[in-house]
Design brief:
By secondary structure, the protein is of the alpha/beta class. Helix content is 33%, strand content 22%. The chain has three domains: 116 residues, Methylthiotransferase, N-terminal domain (Rossmann fold); 224 residues, tm_1862 like domain (pyruvate-formate lyase- activating enzyme, Alpha-Beta Horseshoe); 59 residues, Nucleic acid-binding proteins (OB fold (Dihydrolipoamide Acetyltransferase, E2P)), CATH 2.40.50.140. The chain has 14 helices and 19 strands. Helix 7 runs parallel beside helix 9 and helix 13 packs parallel to helix 14.
Length: 432
Amino acid sequence: MKKIALVSHGCAKNLVDSELILGILAKNGYEITLDEDETDIVIVNTCSFICDAERESIGAILELVEKGKKVIVAGCLAQKHPEELKKEIPELAGIIGTTDFEKIIDVIKNIDKNYVKEVNEHPSYIYPENVERQQITMGASSYIKIADGCNYRCGYCIIPYLRGDYHSRKIEDIVSEAKKLVKRGVTEIILIAQDTTGYGIDIYNKPMLSELLEELNKIDGLCWIRIMYAYPTTMSDKLINTIATLDKVVKYVDIPLQHSHPEMLKLMNRPAFDYRPLINKIRKSIPNVSIRTTFIVGYPGETEEYFEHLKQFISEMEFDRVGVFEYSREKGTPSYDMKPRITKKVAHKRYKELMELQQEISLKRNKNFIGKKLPCIIEAFSDDGNVVARTEYDAPEIDGIVSIKTNKPVIPGDIEMVKITGATEYDLIGNL
């Protein structure tokens, strides 16, 4: 039986798809590896959210083709540009779309015969519950995809056109997966979807994230439950109260707002209302909550007045964590032909201004932790002998870390009480 390698690009949602592809391969008896030098067949699961991600994925494909590998392209880039990929890279062995990865076996079986394209022009993502994920990264934390696809049509976003409308998984399937992960040593699960707060509305006729959290909270051995990608209009009082009261749900709210000015939000096809009352409600209802959000600068039509409104909003609200992105013009999105366009130079200047502002806010908020003891999840050991950990206020890979000096033996995945002794703009220093 052939050995197959897989290279994964993109977001955590794509990572789960890569693990499902590996699960399909394992189920069908294939030997799998993450080292492309060990085999001549390589699957590249690609990202196509913005131009930079596309370039990274294409670079990886070309490098493998030049090495003489038989390359199968999967994921978002394959869904978005199936014909162009084959035309520009005729050496490709096959292409699999975002919702067709269960057909990977057919492509592999035909890899020595002819090129195979399996891309549904009307994608509809249904999670393959019959597949056992083969985890690429094993550690303290693991992602669980609770839904995929999206019913919103934000002006800048290509995702609904690549993955179709919103499809939730059943509560019992998600809970079952979480229990399996905990048995493997995972102590934190991170719930992901294009919109987690809309979970369940398509199969239960109402949002059911609160009910899902209540079931997950009962799992023995699970310490932390984290929710990513909340949508502002479905951040209900019930959900806020659930986050506040369930002991395993970390007091961390990730709610991408994208902008503050109502006219800009309308142009983005986002909920156009003042977000201040919602943020204040979350802070009032969830003691010691950490709020993370993201904003886009340089979107078509963003005047200096609109940008200053956003800058003032960030300054006033003092978010704990902020990500800022420069608008990326993507074919197939509603904003592609919108005008007036903002130059890259202006967009980058605005990006730098917001990041500098947020650094000041972040440092100020981090300094408030000095002298306090915080529960931290142990992740790894650094080259300088320190322990790398995270507070409940930090999601893996996107937020900060805690660098801990200690002689005490610790185990990755354990939750330890750490005394915070120092702070930088993004990270904390502590000891055990």
